[in-house]
Design a protein that fits this description.
The protein is built from 18 helices and 15 strands. It has 539 residues and is α+β, with helices and mostly antiparallel strands. The chain folds into three domains: 122 residues, NADH:ubiquinone oxidoreductase Nqo5 subunit (Beta Polymerase, domain 2, 2-Layer Sandwich), CATH 3.30.460; 34 residues, no CATH class; 318 residues, Orthogonal Bundle (Cytochrome-c3 Hydrogenase, chain B), CATH 1.10.645.
Length: 539
């Protein structure tokens, strides 16, 4: 974070809204803008969004009635060209409503509906106030993230019907799919409206397996919550636990050892490659090319066996700890990693070359599941789904953590080349296929670059007492995209509030746009090319 840049952001906001701002301060790479009046939220957030080159990263609501602050909403904006997060903080007091940002910042829509469900605060001006997280069987006027709600409460089921959007007209048919599917995938409901063979509307309905993770964390210790973070989505265990640990480490003002940073990086990239290769295999299956799928899944299995050899877990549970890592990498295992990567990398290149030589496979992906770049930008899409349309976002480079470095270190020629390559991306299933192929190769290189480990230990000690009600934002780039974990401490090292925003929460809505004018049989291929998670969404 460049402190002179930060002073410029502070000056920009202060000069424009001197009468509306109570105070501005900063810590680490987080800048906090406190508002005098919550009614000024829209104008200030719109200014930060439009004039400071930011995107809305998440919205965090907290119940701070015990401290006399009532409900507080933190609007977190991520700078797109600097390692800074800007928090616009509005204290609502006793008010049960807040101004909606949707008309100017479309990405706010889901966050506002989530806050309405979980805290009972109404976003005034949001055109869609249907339930999002809490389904129609949840009783009215019971809000699970308020402090008064007891985790052991057994609510009484109510019988209501969810008001799906209706598309009417001559020749229009409706096809409901799910939430129960013919397979082992988790529940999700997809309601297609079709005209002839073409999809003209899709509405998704998720949160059938909402787990109450954020509420549960309030009753757990810091280490127990770490185990919980790994289980948000099993295939993102390293990314989510790293983001959670980062948040606690930033609050505690501790720096983890270099050896731990490199080990975190190695395991994060191992997690990325086995998932990307598995997704590429799934794309091959849904494109009707079983041979490619079989070969890629063999490579995925080799990597998962490597995971187990290194950590004891095929999906890398137990790698991270607060202050560093639990798993060391011996010299013998370094050799094993390099040998396995070389072996898998060679076979991977052969399989990809084989797939790209098959015109039927390439034609099946080309033009399927197109993501409009403007809509992706407006909805704050992250990860491969953003990069496949030329939106250059990657938390590893934009907000470096572990052993990653900031992308500003690239030469002008490298930057220009990267921009040209981004502009070529068309946003279809083929672009997502190619982005994953490139990222697998990049991950192999990152792992090799990190394998020379320092000797300064595996972890730093966490303070015995952490300041109550201090908070910080942790983040990581999973194979699906950016995951954010915000933690506010409570009394006696407890957790007062744990807010999680995964890549899937951002990205599920884009599939409704990607399938438009495709045919229904294209949906499995489009869905697989997105690689969205039900569990990672249904917190």
């Amino acid at each position: 974070m460049n402190k002179s840049n930060l002073q410029n952001y502070i000056k920009e906001i202060t000069d424009s809204f001197s009468n509306q701002i109570k105070k501005i301060n900063y810590k680490n790479n987080e800048m906090y803008v406190y508002l005098k009046d919550p009614n000024d939220t829209s104008i200030i957030c719109n200014h930060v969004y439009a004039n400071l080159n930011t995107k809305l990263a998440t919205m965090i609501c907290t119940d701070e009635q015990k401290n006399g602050d009532g409900f507080v909403i933190r609007y977190v904006f991520e700078k797109l060209n600097d390692d800074v997060f800007i928090f616009v903080i509005a204290h609502l007091g006793k008010s049960n409503s807040f101004p909606s940002l949707v008309s100017q910042i479309p990405a706010a829509a889901l966050y506002e509906r989530e806050i309405k469900d979980m805290f009972g605060l109404v976003p005034i001006g949001n055109p869609d106030l249907r339930p999002l997280v809490l389904h129609e069987h949840w009783p009215n006027n019971i809000f699970p993230l308020r402090k008064e709600f007891d985790l052991k409460t057994k609510v009484v089921r109510q019988e209501l019907e969810y008001p799906f959007l209706r598309v009417e007209g001559d020749g229009i048919c409706e096809i409901p799919v799910g939430p129960v599917h013919a397979g082992i995938i988790e529940p999700g409901h997809f309601r297609f409206s079709i005209l002839g063979e073409n999809i003209i509307n899709l509405e998704t309905r998720l949160f059938y397996t909402h787990k109450g993770i954020e509420k549960l964390a309030e009753s757990l210790t810091l280490d127990e919550s770490l185990l919980l973070s790994e289980r948000i989505a099993g295939d993102e265990s390293v990314a989510n636990s790293a983001a959670y640990c980062q948040a606690i480490e930033k609050i505690s003002q501790i720096d983890i050892p270099n050896r731990a940073k490199k080990i975190r990086t190695i395991f994060a990239e191992l997690e990325r490659v086995y998932n990307h290769i598995g997704t590429l295999g799934g794309i091959s299956t849904d494109a009707g090319f079983a041979f490619g799928s079989a070969r890629l899944n063999i490579l995925k299995e080799r990597l998962m066996q490597l995971n187990e050899s290194l950590s004891g877990s095929r999906i890398l549970f137990g790698v991270n700890r607060i202050g560093g890592v639990r798993c060391d990498i011996s010299d013998k295992n370094k050799k094993l990693i390099v040998e396995r990567i070389d072996e898998v990398s060679s076979d991977f290149d052969k399989v990809i070359a084989f797939l790209k030589a098959k015109s039927s496979f390439m034609d099946r992906l080309k033009g399927t599941g197109m993501i409009p770049k403007k809509i992706a930008h407006d909805l704050g899409i992250v990860g491969v789904a953003a990069r496949c349309v030329g939106i250059d976002v990657d938390t590893r480079h934009d907000h470096p953590y572990a052993n990653y470095v900031i992308s500003n270190n690239r030469t002008p020629q490298q930057i220009m080349h990267a921009q040209i390559e981004m502009e070529k991306r068309s946003g279809d299933a083929l672009a997502r296929f190619e982005v994953r192929v490139n990222e697998v190769r990049d991950s192999f290189k990152i792992i090799k670059d990190s394998i020379d480990l320092d000797d300064d230990g595996l972890y730093s000690n966490v303070p015995v007492v952490i300041e109550p009600y201090s908070s910080a934002l942790g983040y990581a780039e999973s194979h699906r995209g950016q995951t954010l974990h915000w933690v506010m401490m409570g009394e006696k090292n407890s957790i007062s509030r744990y807010k999680i925003r995964t890549a899937s929460f951002c990205n599920w809505k884009i599939i409704e746009h990607a399938v438009l004018n495709d045919i229904v049989p294209d949906f499995p291929l489009v869905n697989k090319s997105m690689d969205l998670s039900y569990s990672g969404n249904d917190l």
